[in-house]
Amino acid sequence: MKKSRCFAFASALALLLAVAVGCSSTTKPAPVAPAPPPPAAPAATDVSRQPQPLGVESQPVQSGDVADLQEVAGLKRINFAYNQFTLEDQARVVLEQNAVYLRRHPAEKIVIEGHCDERGSDEYNLALGERRALAAKNYLVSLGIAAERLSIISYGEEKPLVTTSGEEAWAQNRRAEFKVAR
Amino acid sequence: MSCAWRSLAAALALGGLLCLLPAAPAAGAEIEISAPGQQAIPLALTRFLPQEGGAVPAVAEELEAVLAADLDLAGLFRFLDRQVFLDDAGKVGLFSTQVDFGQWQLLGAEVLIKGAYRVEGDQLAVEARLFDVPNRRLLTGRRFIGRPADVRRIAHAFADDILKTLTGEAGPFDARLAYISTRSGHKELWLMDVDGGNPLRLTDHRSIVLNPDFSPTGKELLFTSYRAGNPDLYRKEVFTGREVRLSSQPGLNIAGRYAPDGGGLALTLSRDGDPDLYLLGMNGAIRQRLTNSFGIDVDPSWSPDGRQLAFVSSRLGSPQIFILDAASGASRRLTANGRYDATPAWSPKGDRIVFARQEGNRFDLYSIRPDGTDERRLTFGPGSAEHPRWSPDGRFLVYSLERGGKKALWIMRADGTGGRQVAAEGSHPAWSVVW
Fold first, then answer.
1. pTM
2. Which residues of A touch B365 (CB under 8 A)?
């Protein structure tokens, strides 16, 4: 508070002084003769004393601790059209077969992974992949599988099945996968 | 010191400044240099010379190369050919009375950069000067000390000084880019200089790390990681390495963006099955649901005053960019010309929003005013340009460019000119303020 009042006072004085002196240099043409001697050597900036970011070599090791997920023969992937999450007829047939497996293995819990092809935007695809996983989950629930057994996760375009480009690769990568959590 | 004395001292200093101001940036006063790439001031960039001691050509070459690259990207200068320099370029005198301005005037230079360095063991000292040739005077100068390894930072910092002196606004070169790289075998968070120097890995999650964002101070980062088996939002301190998981709601916790005042963040959560935008406190607690529409809402980007957010929504079918008024919750569509628009980034000055538009199977970058007028295309291939982010001064953009299945990081001027690669591999860049 006191500081700011000081500053206001200083600014007012400065303006007065500037007007009084008439800012004479502004009205003259730029000097051609050698300029007044330069200011004293500028204060040194010590860049090595500024804080440095800490890389991983200086940090404790943090390894991934993700649950082990397994693919099983009885659970098949389904595919989707570009930028779509609605289930096509073929996907419904596969999900009905997957439901048969799940009824035969009532103790197993399943993670449904939603995936996209590489073309869309990364964050949008994370949301789209989740929509795909959710569509598969909802259909399995409608077939009588307990929702508590089914969790979903989206990987967007982060885990392509096929790393090449082109229509065929993209079609394979737009998918939902079903994995057993063990 | 008493208040009165301090006021008088400050008044004298300010009064002097007020008198100086109109005449101070002589080159700047004569040449309108607000927009990059519009004008070209003839610049003589001399090689820095050894001061009392042995020459270390590598230091001089690196200083010159970094300065030249930064100032070239700035787009304000025409570099004079070093071949025509006369003997003043080889003289170490750094006082304006020691410089032979007549030589430089003869060569058509309007601004002149000279400097000297000294290496002693593990110590590096650099004197850097910018002169106004027609008016024969010093415009700015600074003495840097550090280690020989700091040479690039010193050059970036002086480039920032030069822009500050000539345009009134400092450059963004002594800053860092955060980005995602797979160099270690996993997608991890990395940090590097804005020209790609000094890459440093910040995370060791051995999972998938995505989409970093710098806090307004540049000292913290937000990012998403699958480390705990779900796309959760993390917060990391750059200097201490300290890291916490900030938001682990069921489903997506993605694309976190600090509010301009640093007091909260916007992100996408899908906890109830529908991906919508939320506002979190810096403790991770949900403060407000920002959108509630059926459809995907992602990629928030704050207006600099913190009152509005640009974001991507599929509420009308394909992904389009909308503007949300944070207080009222009302939103309006921003882009109407594309079929698939994504990753908006609001400029730090508030005057433009840059975004990626998909046409065919690739993206190009566009820029538009927040009122939806004056849409301009910035990139024209080849390759797919995505994830544009602004430099803190609004002069430049950093983005990823995918060609032949590989994503590299590029920077360019905000008008789309001057593009150059800064890292051969990387994605999801973000530009910090100058530390």
1. 0.86
2. none
